[in-house]
Amino acid sequence: MAAPPSIFAILDLPVAIKVVDIGANPIDGEPPYAPLLKAGRAEVVGFEPNLQAHAVLQQKKEPRETYLPLAIGDGKRHTLHHCHAPGMTSLLEPNPDVLALFHGFPDWGRVVRTEAVDTVRLDDVAETAGLDLLKIDIQGAELMVFENAPRRLAEALVIQTEVEFLEMYRGQPLYGDVERFLRAQGFMLHRFEPLVSRVVKPLVLGGDIFAGFTQLFWADAIFVRDLTRLGGLDDGQLLRAAAILHECYKAVDLALHILLEHDRRAGTALGPRYLQAITARA
Mean pLDDT for the chain? Predict the structure, then answer.
């Protein structure tokens, strides 16, 4: 199926979407919500306690973007472990027993310094009220944030969170723990994107220590509101959820399902128009 056009080119949706990005360090390139920003339909509130990364975000930001140098967590003081590879810096201590299984990770996960940091509960940051899309990547401390943000999770429509399948950090919650918690809050897993594997040492494939092979390591997990329980969402939330799923994840099947629910309630005909547009490019 060819890439669909923007949902805003298909339907005149009166939506403005609130995005919260926890761990907004730009090292991984363009964020998934970039299409919403380009369409002028998103307001972003991002958090990045790494001051160098925060400065980069401040320099590049557009008027609809706000970045705060805060560490989101449980509202308590924690030790931040700065690693040789900045992308592995975490509130949790790297686990050398697991990292030793993989090429490169013992060096990348080497703690070069620690510092005490005060964390803030997401619920206590007024700028995040009314969030629709929550993106979070804070190296193993994601469940800590979720457990201390009941009000924001009750508002969220889509969550993209990093999850690990192995204990990269000592005592960290793994995918099953995160999935179980979010399912209890009314979310269902949509898909993994990306799903990352690595070669277990000592094998090296083609001289590439980054090569994926048989051992799953981590992923970004995309969670959506349980499609069997859409009655808890109002009409505006349905439209915003459809826009997020289409623009950020090309999940046209989910977007259509949600638009048809909106049609059923409101007497609109958004679903058939959307279906015609996306199937015309199949």
Answer: 95
CA 38 to chain centroid, in Å, comes to 18
How far apart (Å, rounded) are the C-alpha atoms in residues 53 and 71?
A: 13
Q: What is the pLDDT of residues 153-195, one digit of tens each?
A: 999 999 999 999 999 999 999 999 999 999 999 999 999 999 9
Q: What gap in Å lies between CA 52 and CA 25, rounded to an integer?
A: 9
Tokens of 259: 């638009």
Q: Which domains does the chain have, with CATH numbers?
A: 15-252 (3.40.50.150)
In angstroms, rounded to a whole number, what is the distance separating the alpha carbons of residues 200 and 102?
5
Strands, E assignment, the chain: 17-22, 42-47, 65-68, 71-72, 77-83, 111-120, 133-136, 158-164, 187-198, 215-225
CB atoms within 10 A of CB 266: 12
pLDDT at 28: 75
Q: Which residues of 3-26 are buried (b: 16+ CB within 10 A; e: fewer)?
A: ebeebbebbebebbbbbbbbbbbe
**8-state DSSP, 199:** P
pTM: 0.96
φ and ψ of 234, to 5 deg: -85, 175
Q: What is the pLDDT of residue 282?
A: 64
Lowest-confidence segment of 29-33, 174-178, 233-237 by average pLDDT:
29-33
* Nearest partner of 188 among 178, 179, 200, 201, judged by Cα: 179
- State both tokens at 173: 């919650």
Q: Are 133 and 223 in contact (CB under 8 A)?
A: no
